[in-house]
């Protein structure tokens, strides 16, 4: 009889029957791994409700193609890796919560809401003193721009569902956001208007491609002949595409793209450079972006929206919908699992205990978190080697319209160290003019070595060099970067050459009772919807095995 599960649950974990749940009504005999007969109770009604709930989730994703291999059941099997059993001489610690969710970004909050809906006692803890993670409306900057997660796609089924459920309103911003505003190009030190680009001597393309504007190079040329086109969203994980897990510049050269074009494509890459990002990273990115083209729109026919009042209202509403208040300022420094209970230690000395943990900490930040038992093998390598794209934003108030002085377009796209300076679209006509320098990828690395004042000084000086009319017309407001504090890793995970093959199928594996989520673990979607997808998957891992 030893090692035999009770017949209702998926198996045993660390000596405990996994279907054991407090506050239940029926009793079953269950034999644990250690050979002890335990009386466990199971609430059949809860199980039935969960089954309905899982069917409901599949419905919520309607419109997205979810292959059989990606259904929650199949996914949970691959993610279900047991940690080595721990034997303690001390009295076992009692879990104070069913579940602790670490991180109050979209992925953590979505997992928390789904788990609470299923009757679990859930406590969310967050390292920063604010909610939302990479959804962050800059309320102190004129026009309240979004620092990160900005555009909500029509195909964001889970996110749209949550926005609607929580009674928030969405609106369509200036068509396509910043991308459709006219840019003034500064290439090799020369100003070129969008109109003049086609015939300009610095235009490196031929034929009809000469009409393509430089800020469109990366997305258009990368997606051309994309081998993933017409394939399901998770096709990038299939071994047949490992041949594209090579440096993106190498892939582009093999397609006949010339060096000057590759250099211009490099300007807007967030990764460490074209040589440092896997072609599969870029092919997948544009595959996801274009997957719903012509198939899904909002009822008003638009493709993108934002939340009225700022996207930060969503994580706020999600947190408010929870029974337990989210605990802010709780930077997790360690996890210890013993006898099926996870102890979560925070930098302020506080501790939480739970039967299961959902961890949405960005993967590179996990380098600074201790695990007992230690994380080993492929997951450990992924934590050590994965990286996030970088960017830094320097926000300014524009005290006088400098573009009226020199008569050129306001927005600049450059191949120099400043990369882009954009005058922000106003959300309200009464907003004062505000602008930001947005520098990403390798050019932003140097800012790691500067404090905020130094970043401002650097940006102002570079701007004055290439656009003298800006001198004295900018007032410093704020430096923002998703990696300038200990809780952020950068903008979003990117796969370096060879990493898709090595790690992409391991990111979702749990470490004992710790279940990882976050956009870096999503396999179908990216961005904010990727965060929702990953939170849903982590919640399902727990629900299906409860
Ligand atoms: C500049 C930029 C623009 C973007 N634009 C878009 C867009 O237009 N559309 C789109 O869909 N997506 C966009 N994204 C991506 C989107 O914002 C993210 O994919 C998504 O918000 C990630 O959510 P998450 O829950 O996975 O991670 P996060 O939001 O990073 O959540 C992780 C949470 O964990 C917390 N944390 C970290 N370490 C600890 C610790 N040790 N202890 C406790 N808590 C900790 C963090 O503070 C954070 O709150 C953009 C991102 C950036 C940077």
From TrEMBL:
Binding site for substrate: 438
Superkingdom classification of source: Bacteria
Positions of FAD binding: 107, 332, 519
Keywords: Oxidoreductase
Oxidoreductase is among the record's keywords: yes
Keyword Metal-binding set for record: no
InterPro entries named in the record: Amino_oxidase, FAD/NAD-bd_sf, Flavin_amine_oxidase, Flavin_MAO
Cofactor: FAD
GO molecular function: oxidoreductase activity
Residue intervals of the Amine oxidase domain: 106-543
Assigned protein family: Belongs to the flavin monoamine oxidase family.
Name this protein carries in UniProt: FAD-binding protein
Organism in which the protein naturally occurs: Maribacter algarum (ex Zhang et al. 2020)
């Amino acid at each position: 009889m030893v090692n035999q599960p009770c017949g209702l649950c998926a198996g045993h974990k660390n000596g405990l029957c996994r279907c054991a749940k407090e506050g239940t009504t029926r009793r079953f005999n269950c034999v644990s791994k250690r050979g002890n007969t335990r009386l466990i109770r199971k609430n059949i009604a809860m199980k039935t409700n969960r089954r309905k709930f899982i069917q409901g989730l599949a419905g919520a994703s309607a419109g997205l193609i979810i292959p059989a291999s990606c259904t929650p059941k199949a996914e949970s099997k691959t993610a279900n890796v047991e940690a080595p059993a721990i034997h303690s001489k001390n009295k076992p610690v009692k879990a104070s919560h069913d579940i602790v969710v670490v991180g109050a970004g979209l992925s953590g909050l979505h997992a928390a809401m789904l788990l609470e809906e299923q009757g679990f006692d859930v406590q969310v803890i967050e390292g920063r003193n604010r909610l939302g993670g990479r959804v962050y409306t800059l309320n102190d900057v004129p026009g309240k721009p979004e620092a990160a997660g900005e555009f909500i796609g029509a195909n964001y089924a889970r996110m749209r569902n949550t926005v609607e459920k929580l009674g928030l309103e969405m609106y369509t911003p200036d068509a396509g956001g910043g991308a459709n505003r006219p840019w003034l190009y500064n290439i090799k030190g020369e100003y070129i208007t969008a109109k003049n680009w086609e015939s300009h001597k610095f235009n490196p393309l031929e034929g009809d491609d000469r009409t393509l504007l430089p800020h469109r190079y990366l997305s258009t040329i990368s997606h051309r002949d994309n081998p993933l086109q017409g394939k399901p969203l998770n096709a990038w994980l299939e071994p047949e595409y490992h041949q594209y897990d090579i440096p993106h510049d190498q892939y582009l050269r093999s397609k006949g793209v010339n060096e000057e074009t590759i250099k211009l494509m490099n300007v807007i890459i967030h990764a460490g450079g074209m040589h440092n990002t896997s072609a599969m990273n870029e092919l997948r990115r544009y595959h996801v972006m274009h997957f719903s083209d012509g198939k899904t729109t909002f009822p008003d026919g638009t493709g993108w929206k934002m939340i009225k009042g700022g996207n930060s209202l969503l994580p706020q509403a999600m947190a408010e919908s929870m029974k337990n208040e989210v605990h802010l300022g709780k930077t997790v420094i360690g996890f210890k699992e013993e006898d099926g209970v996870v102890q979560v230690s925070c930098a302020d000395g506080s501790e939480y205990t739970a039967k299961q943990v959902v961890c949405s900490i960005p993967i590179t930040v996990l380098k600074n978190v201790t695990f007992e038992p230690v994380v080993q093998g492929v997951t450990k390598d992924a934590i050590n080697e994965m990286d996030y794209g970088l960017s830094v934003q320097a926000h300014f108030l524009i005290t006088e319209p400098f573009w009226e002085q020199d008569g050129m377009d306001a927005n600049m796209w450059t191949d120099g160290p400043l990369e882009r300076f954009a005058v922000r679209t106003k959300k309200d006509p009464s907003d004062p003019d505000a602008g930001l320098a947005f520098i990403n990828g390798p050019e932003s690395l140097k800012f790691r070595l500067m404090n905020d004042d130094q970043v401002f000084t650097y940006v102002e000086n570079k701007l004055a060099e290439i656009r003298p009319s800006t001198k004295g017309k900018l007032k410093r407001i704020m430096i923002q970067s998703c990696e300038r504090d200990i809780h952020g890793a950068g903008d979003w995970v990117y796969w370096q050459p060879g990493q898709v093959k090595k790690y992409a199928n391991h990111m979702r594996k749990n470490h004992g009772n710790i279940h990882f989520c976050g956009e870096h673990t999503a396999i179908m979607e990216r961005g904010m919807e990727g965060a929702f997808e990953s939170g849903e998957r982590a919640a399902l891992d727990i629900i299906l095995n409860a």
